[in-house]
Amino acid sequence: MQARRIIVIGAGHNGLTCAAYLARGGYDVVVVEASDHVGGAADTREFADGFRVSGCAHYVYQLNQQVVQELGLQQHGLEYSARDLSTIALSPGEQRVTIGPGGLSGPVTERDRSGHQEFTRLTERFAGLLSRYLNQAPPRLANGTRKDRLTLARLGWDIRRLGRDDMRELLRVGAINIYDVLNEFFDSDLVKGAISLDAVLGTHMGPRSPNSVLTYLYRLAGNGVPRPGALALPRGGMGGIAAALERAARAAGVEIRSGTAVGRITVSHDRVSGVELTDGERLEAGLVVSSADPRTTVLSLLGARHCETGFVRRIHNLRCRGNAAKLHLALDGPPDFPGVGAPDLRHRLIFAPDMDYAERAFNPAKYGEYSTEPVMEIALPSMSDPSLAPEGKHVLSAIVQYAPYQLKAGWDDGQKQAFLDVALATLATVAPGIRDQIVAGELLTPADIEARYRISGGHWHHGELSLDQFMFVRPVPGATQYALPVDGLFLCGAGAHPGGGITGTPGRIAAQVIVEGGAA
Amino acid sequence: MSVAGKPVSERVLRTAFYSRTSEANLLNKWHSWRGYTTADAYYDASIEYFACRNATGVFDLCPMTKYRITGPDALAYLDRLVTRDMTRIKPGRVAYAVWCNDAGKVIDDGTIFHLSQGEYRLCAYGRHLAWLLAATLGFDVSVEEETDEIAALAVQGPTSCAILKDMGLDGIENLKPFGLTHFDHGQLMVSRTGFTGDLGYELWVERRFAENLWDRLFEAGRLRGIRAMGGDALDMARIEAGFLQAEVDFLPADQVVRPGRARSPYELGLGWLVDLEKANFNGRRALAREKAEGSSVWQMVKLVIEGNKPADASYIYAGTRKQVGFVTSAMWSPVAKQNIALATVKAPYGNNESNLHAEIYYQRELHWSRVMARCEVVDKPFWDPPRRRATPPADY
């Protein structure tokens, strides 16, 4: 019957990527998207009249270049309004340090400069090694095939080939925290604060949390252009990437049905038979590929009944509670960040004046409270892309941490307003006049992100990126090569290997696994 | 305060019948069953055993772990939990069942009582709350342990039905095997179940009714040879019935450490409890694979062994040289007049073509001797009298 038909759940960037590859692999692909537009968390939203921002992530620094080339995203309209941006670390005073393509500038020591070179060399080397394994299906540790064992052997060999010193260093820093490592390389509090924020952005970690070196390496292991981790702004916001992917998918023959929510995945004789929409309509298919997060896919859409208790327990216990809130402000003119020249406002601004500040910001999150002195990653995308705001006006987009998903007091209007006040007060320490320029604004807590983007726990990465949920064990043992226990059902979103971020990689590898497996 | 610092009376769990069992225990022989003070034997294990085979033996079942399972999804929950089709177990019926982990290895076996529509009690030798609660994820069901609140007695043997009738349980003779019914305005539940492979019943009451139940029962059974029976006698009876004992004949899958030490239902001879056609259940995919590939590693066999020396802990050989397994339970069976054993052997040696032998070591006045005894594999339980199933049972 519908054996060659595949339903992809969710038109997020990974869902679209997977769908496009599957269609090119000869399948008849339908993408079902609950929202009325594509992109999922890679969207551009108009939050006030004429003011548009990226709804979740706002910088691109990991997008898989094979996806860009193979799907011809540039031909399908992918453009950047800015590339290879610098990072400007802000202090509450007017001290500024720029971390740019050419190294550090600002009040830093000689040790900072040389440390930055060595730190960059080392982390890029490790990330390069990692990136090879993040761009293919992870080898299985148990019940593996010959291919899995070969991949594992090659991983071991690649680590050995780093040479004695670097190999030892990788094994030493691999699971420790970014705080200790940065102290070995740098003097400058501003530099350390800013780099440590990159390691913990979007996670439930502070700079002193174990595992925060891995998250930093993961950031560098994507395909930043022209160098690992290089920051870019897509024209038109993140929705620009989604639009290019949508065109690429349609060009490959994919049918996209937006405004259509899946109620459940249907199963017959232990094999998926399709999906049932919330309006009761049934769509039949030989395979179903879900770009929803693993918890939503297994617990809400599939149902525990179709899986084993141990597997359901692992999925249920996935750590996927978000901590990142998103602040969007409509400004009636260019903001003034003292110490940052007007042309430099197109760069990324970081407020994490030192690592202890960042760690203290994290502390309340452990106990279900939000930071009263948060860290922030601030973008002013309209500085490079005037189309995002009415003429002469600007938008500010900031990731504000930490705002734990499971706030003890609950995310009611009062708590949200209180955290918004905290965020604005923090912003005012680096841009004192900004309050008077705000014409509109919104704050998205992880609870809002969960509701708006249908991500369990509001966690951008669909599951914490940590060693126990990484590579061979992502998202959980028993589902590491995209296939779920029910025949014909696959994952292709950020919850699957290699993980979150605007990469397209999980979607691409999932499609490869399906096409190579000749499933259906 | 630490548990160890508490006085004995608070530290040690006592069953609801302790006032009666301690009175009856002339030998003062006890063991701890999951913390409960439980009699090994009251006066003589053999006499207690013969009471249960020829009259009636009463075993204090209180330490048996009991879970109350209720809620709209109780049936779906249990059907997903165990390997057999629970939709066939109607209210008023009891099912013997095993439950497996994801890999299709047995966690434990037990009985599930369908008390009333959508309300169940699961009884098992071990404790499994963590697993049972994990299995509730995604189901609208509640699982509560009620081990201490519910008191139970096994009343087993040929005169058991007559005794219960004398106790005033009208119509008890019509209760079919694996059926359950209520008396005394619902305060007393009786099921026709047991661990002896003979005619027998189990009586279930709230803890506060326990002592009264004991007294009524023993009063009614005075002239029909009723006797309290300890764990030693029960163990003899269950081996004769061919029943497996968790932690003796197999290890629960969540307790094994070494790979390959857990057992699938097929490997325990419990394949008849596995319904691969029903809706998905824990371990189904692994079991379907095992069955399709014939990849079972072990077989559980019932052996009749020549001679009269119990084959406790013996190695089993195919022929007399090739070691293929070991005995997990063994005894001289007085009713079967046979030397019997339950053994685990490597597949496919569990048949009579393998010419199995047991290497039995035995002691005579401190001196050890060894014999290689020929074993015969049998299918049927060693003891399986027609009265076990007869409804109504003959009036002994």
Task: Provide structural commentary.
The complex is a heterodimer of chains A (520) and B (396). With 520 residues, chain A is of the alpha/beta class. Chain A is 34% helix and 19% strand. Chain A is built from 15 helices and 20 strands. Chain A has an eight-stranded mixed sheet, with helices on both faces. A five-stranded parallel sheet of chain A has the order 10-2-1-14-20, with helices on one face. The radius of gyration of chain A is 22 Å and the shape is globular. Chain B is of the alpha+beta class and 396 residues long. Among the domains of chain B are: 3-64 and 148-241, Probable tRNA modification gtpase trme, domain 1 (Gyrase A, domain 2, 2-Layer Sandwich); 297-378, Elongation Factor Tu (Ef-tu), domain 3 (Beta Barrel). Chain B has a six-stranded mixed sheet. A six-stranded antiparallel barrel of chain B has the order 14-17-16-15-18-19. Chain B has a five-stranded antiparallel sheet with strand order 5-6-7-4-8. Chain B starts with 7 loop residues before the first helix and ends in an 18-residue tail after the last strand. Chain A binds chain B through residues 270, 299, 303-313, 316, 478, 485, and chain B through 76, 80-81, 101-102, 131, 134-135, 137-139, 279-280, 282-285.
